[in-house]
Design goal:
Elements (H helix, E strand, L loop, with lengths): L2 H13 L2 H34 L4 H34 L9 H8 L10
Helix pairs in contact: 1-2, 2-3, 2-4
C-alpha cells in the first residue's frame, strides 16, 4: 500500500499539515526500503544457486530456508507498518528508524511561512 503514500506526498506538498507532510514522506521511504530489501531477499537464493554448484536437494533446502526468511521479513514489515499506522492515526509525531533520516534528506520539510 505504500505507493499510495506517493500520491499523498504529492498532494501534501501544497495543502497538507506538517504532520501529514512528515508522515507521507516517512511512509514513502519506509515502503521503498522494505520493497528493496524484499527484492534483495528474493534474489539472494537465485544468485547463490547460480554461482555455487550443489545438488538439487541442497538447492531446494536452501530455497526453503530463504522462503522462510522472506515470510518472516514480510510479517515483520506488516507488523511495523500497522504499528506506525496506529501511532500516526493517534496524531503522534515520531521518527521511523532508518527511514526518517533518509526522508529528511530526500524530502526536506519547510514550514509554510518559509515557503515561497
Amino acid at each position: 500500500m505504500w505507493p499510495l503514500a506517493i500520491l499523498e506526498l504529492l498532494r501534501s506538498q501544497h495543502e497538507g499539515s506538517l504532520w501529514m507532510r512528515l508522515h507521507s514522506r516517512q511512509a514513502v521511504v519506509f515502503g521503498a526500503l522494505a520493497s528493496i530489501v524484499f527484492l534483495v531477499l528474493f534474489a539472494i537464493p537465485f544468485i547463490i544457486s547460480f554461482f555455487v554448484y550443489s545438488s538439487a536437494g541442497a538447492i531446494i533446502a536452501f530455497y526453503g530456508v530463504a522462503m522462510a526468511v522472506e515470510v518472516l521479513f514480510g510479517l515483520l514489515i506488516l507488523v511495523l507498518a500497522v504499528y506506525y499506522s496506529i501511532r500516526a492515526s493517534r496524531g503522534e509525531l515520531f521518527d521511523i528508524p532508518v527511514a526518517s533520516p533518509i526522508s529528511v534528506r530526500l524530502f526536506p520539510i519547510r514550514r509554510r511561512d518559509q515557503d515561497g
